[in-house]
Design a protein that fits this description.
By secondary structure, this protein is α+β, with helices and mostly antiparallel strands. Helix 2 runs antiparallel to helix 3 and helix 6 crosses helix 7. 15% of the residues are buried. The longest helix is centred in the N-terminal third of the chain and has 57 residues. It has seven helices and eight strands; from the N terminus they run αααααββββββαββα. Helix content is 53%, strand content 17%.
Amino acid sequence: MAESSPESTTEQVIKTLDPASILKSELDQVSRIYNIIVEFFTNYSFQLIGAIIILIIGFILAGKIAKVVLNLCERHKLDVTLSRFLANTSKMLIVVMIAIIALGKLGISVTPFIAAIGAISLGAGLALQGLLSNYAAGFNIIIIRPFVVGDTITVQGVTGLVKEVLLAYTILTDEDGVEITIPNKHIVGEVLHNSRHDSLLELSVGIDYSENPIEVIEMLEESIGKLGIVSKSRTTQIGIDAFADSAINIGIRLWTPTENLYSSKYKAYKAIYLTLDSANIKIPFPQRDIHLIKELD
C-alpha cells in the first residue's frame, strides 16, 4: 500500500485550516438551521398561532374565574385564607388544562410529561412529608374552623390569641406581644381549648376562721366588679373554695380579655388585699399547734 508523502499531508492540513473552507462550513450549518426553522413554521404555523391564542385566552379566563371564586367566597363570608386558596387553586387547574390543550394543538403528546410529573410528585411527597402534613392540617383547620382570628386557644401547653391562620402554621400572640408559631400538624388531632376572646383567672385568698366568709364574699364581689376587668359576656364566680387547716379559702373565678391577662390578675389581687385590709379582716399564715405529752413513769 502506498504511503502518503509528507507534502500531501501538509497540503490537507492547510486546506482544513483554510478560512474560506471554514466560512463555507459555517454557512452550510446556518443554512441547514434556517431550512429547519422555515420548514417547521411552514408545517406548524397555524398550529403554533392557535396554541398561542389558546394560551392567551386561557390565562384571561383563569384570572376571571379566580376573581369570581374569590368574590363568591367573600360573599358567603368564608375565611380569607380559604378564599384565596380556592381562588388560586381554581386558577392553577384551568392554566394546567389550557396548557395541555395547547400542547395537543402542536401535536406534542403530554403523556410522558404527566408520567414525569407523577414520578417527581411522588419523590417530592416522600421528601416533604412533614411540610405536606402541615399544609393538609392547615386546610383542615380552615375548612372546619375550630378557631378563628381573635380567639384564645390553648394547645400543646401554649396559650395565646390567634393572630393569623396560614396553611403551614398558625401564629399566636401573648400579652407581651411575643409571636408563637405552631405548625398546624401539632394542632389537628390534639386537645384544643378555645375560650374565644377571654381567659379564665382563678384566684384564691384565705381568711381567718373568726371572720364571716359570706360578708367577705359580698365585699369582694363589689370591689372586683368596680375594676372594669371582667368580661361582660361571662359571670364572675366567688365562693368558699375550701376549709383548710389554717384558713377559710375564698375562690374567685373571673373571665378577662386575654391581652390584659396578667394586668387584670395583679389589679384583682391588689383590690382583694385593700378590701380585706380596710375591713380589718385577717389573712392567716399556715401554722400548727404541737402538744407534747410527757409519759409518766
